[in-house]
């Protein structure tokens, strides 16, 4: 099937239940990949899974577990609220500098067993974004393959905005758990000691950057402080929480996300 035929099928599928699968089929017709998931994001609300193609065990990790809270640390989610033209992005190109050494990657993302993830990103409204992820377990996408997929961005953006134009209403009309607090509030709740907050506002900020996978140097640049000050904050954070590693910090965060109040 050539691209003209594949794109025609996508247009015919607009506003039909099989639209997402037809769109993915058209994209795969250009460059193959094993897995895919399409998430819609709206602020801190639980993401809506618009489409996914995973075996059962991987669906639990990539969709169900992800929706419980790890999405808050996902670079795709963090970028989804930035309005702009539709775009294709490699995860590795927008991830923080220590993302692959961070606990989100080592404790959650590594379970996905992916060689690479790339995402088509588009906005329906300024605060409502969609990410169509293409995932490979065998090998990363080559530069040539990435360029070929990049040529599809205008088409995917146009049909995506048209098909999912009512997505903002879905977020308000679809029964969902209460809106998740933002990451800073979750951190404050996670590290509450006997009913009182034990981390200062600055320590909460530093904790947020640690969880996202930023190095001390990158955190310092983002907050406008020195690397030495970041390291002092990190030492104080670990001391107040009676922990010794970033792994323990990540565990506390995930435990807080799974508590009934979150």
From TrEMBL:
Instruction: List keywords of the entry alphabetically.
Output: DNA-binding, Transcription, Transcription regulation
Stored Gene3D superfamilies: Winged helix-like DNA-binding domain superfamily/Winged helix DNA-binding domain
GO BP = regulation of DNA-templated transcription
Q: Which GO terms describe its molecular function?
A: DNA binding
Matches recorded under SUPFAM superfamilies: C-terminal effector domain of the bipartite response regulators
Which InterPro entries does the record match to this protein? Sig_transdc_resp-reg_C-effctor, Tscrpt_reg_LuxR_C, WH-like_DNA-bd_sf
Q: Start and end of every HTH luxR-type domain? A: 195-257
Q: What is this protein called?
A: Helix-turn-helix transcriptional regulator
